[in-house]
From TrEMBL:
This is G-protein coupled receptors family 1 profile domain-containing protein. Its main location: membrane. GO terms for molecular function: G protein-coupled receptor activity; olfactory receptor activity. It is a multi-pass membrane protein. The keyword Cell cycle does not apply. It comes from the Eukaryota. Keywords: G-protein coupled receptor, Membrane, Olfaction, Receptor, Sensory transduction, Transducer, Transmembrane, Transmembrane helix. One of its GO terms (cellular component) is plasma membrane. The keyword Membrane applies. The gene is LOC102170341. The chain crosses the membrane at residues 27-50, 62-87, 99-121, 141-164, 192-213, 225-246, 258-278.
Length: 298
């Protein structure tokens, strides 16, 4: 069939919510609203604490701030569609708005991947060259790294909207949903390519840690990486999972695909603040101090 003849002038998509369970959509509004609220509250708390506490103006926490901003951006990119379907029962989304939303979801995902690599390098420098840590990772270097990560993400994702517009579509906009949703799923090769730099950094970290003579110092060095390892797992385990299901298990129920995609988009931004609040002593102390002050005022 001639590809050009199958193109249709699209104006909007119809988002159906949970496939096969449209009657459950209104009930999903409350847990989704709760998840978004907790995500914004958690990341906002991390950003506020790092900004207020001068002792947290270190390279590690600067990268953590960028990660928190990325998580907020990713959540805000998916929020409009979620609200329109589950809260306002308005499933129709303009075609250009859908493509724009797709661009930002991909972009913030790429930024998050780049930030995790930068944080892995930060941990490597801290363990390998502790005396020169502050002189190597200056605020200028951190700023340039952040800008480079953003430029890389935009350059990688920028062609995607134009390529999507060139795709052939069927005549019913109800069956068009699979095409843009499929475009949100990273390929297997891109998932592994994003994981490799972080993995390589931790191979170097592990090699450096094993070279430390004192067992207590080795445990202390590994403990400084624990929260970041959890963040890497939170990012890449759902990412690889949704990629595998989309690539090799297309026959599974659409509910499974929807669940895995939502897990990939919603879980890391929600749990990253929890991980860093629990595992990072300085942030945990600051949060406890804030709650104690609020309690004393009451």
């Amino acid at each position: 069939m001639n590809t050009s003849s199958s193109h249709v002038n699209l104006h909007s998509f119809i988002l159906t919510g949970i496939p096969g369970m449209p009657d459950k959509n209104p009930w999903m509004a409350f847990p989704l609203g709760f998840l978004y609220t907790m995500t914004l509250l958690g990341n906002g708390t991390i950003l506020a604490i790092i900004k207020v506490d001068q002792s947290l103006h270190e390279p590690m926490y600067c990268f953590l701030s960028i990660l928190a901003l990325t998580d907020v951006g990713l959540s805000m990119s998916t929020l409009p569609s979620m609200l329109s379907v589950f809260w306002f029962n308005a499933p129709e989304v303009p075609f250009d708005a859908c493509i724009t939303q797709m661009f930002f979801i991909h972009s913030f995902g790429e930024v998050g991947s780049g930030v995790l690599v930068s944080m892995a390098f930060d941990r490597f420098v801290d363990i390998r060259h502790p005396l020169h840590y502050a002189s190597i990772l200056t605020h200028g270097i951190i700023g340039k790294t952040g800008i480079a990560v953003i430029i890389r993400a935009v350059c990688v994702v920028f062609p995607v909207p134009f390529l999507i517009k060139r795709l052939p579509f069927c005549h019913s906009n109800a069956c068009l949903i699979r095409t843009p949703v499929s475009a949100l799923v990273p390929t297997w090769s891109s998932s592994l390519w994003g994981l490799m730099p972080s993995s390589f950094s931790y191979v170097l970290i592990l090699k450096t840690v094993l070279g430390i003579a004192s067992r207590a110092e080795r445990l202390k060095a590994l403990n400084t990486c624990l929260s970041h390892i959890c963040a890497v797992l939170l990012f890449y385990v759902p990412l690889i999972g949704v990629t595998i299901i989309h690539r090799f298990r297309k026959h599974l129920s659409p509910v499974v695909h929807t669940f895995m995609t939502n897990t990939y988009l919603l879980l890391p931004p929600l749990l990253n603040p929890v991980v860093y609040s629990v595992k990072t002593k300085q942030i945990r102390r600051r949060i406890i101090l804030v709650f104690q002050r609020q309690k004393n005022r009451v």
